[in-house]
Amino acid sequence: MFGIFKKDPLTTLQKKYEALLEQAMNAQRNGKIEEFGELSYESDKLYKEIQKIKEERKES
């Protein structure tokens, strides 16, 4: 009954992923290569998690 009020975890992860990509881009533009690498790594992990959820939804 109250399922309509639950947030979609995929949407939340997608917003975090986009924010990380933007932070990584800004770090790269400012010459902070180490920070860029760390943010890129984190965004890659989120991307893989997003893809995993999408695949699970396709199978259902």
Element layout with pairings:
Elements: H1 9-29, H2 33-59
Helix pairs in contact: 1-2
Describe the 3D structure.
The protein is mainly alpha-helical and 60 residues long. It has one domain (8-59). The protein contains two helices and no strands. It has helices spanning 9-29, 33-59. α1 runs antiparallel to α2 (33-59). The chain is elongated, with a radius of gyration of 15 Å. The two termini are 21 Å apart.
What are the salient characteristics of this protein?
mainly alpha; 60 residues
Strand percentage: under 5%
State the distance separating the first and last CA atoms.
Answer: 21 Å
Low-confidence stretches: none
Share in helix? over 70%
The secondary-structure class comes to: mainly alpha
Largest sheet: none
Pattern of helices and strands: HH
Look at the structure and give the mean pLDDT: 92
Which oligomeric state applies?
single chain
Counted beta strands? 0
Question: Summed up, what is this model?
Answer:
With 60 residues, the chain is mostly helical.
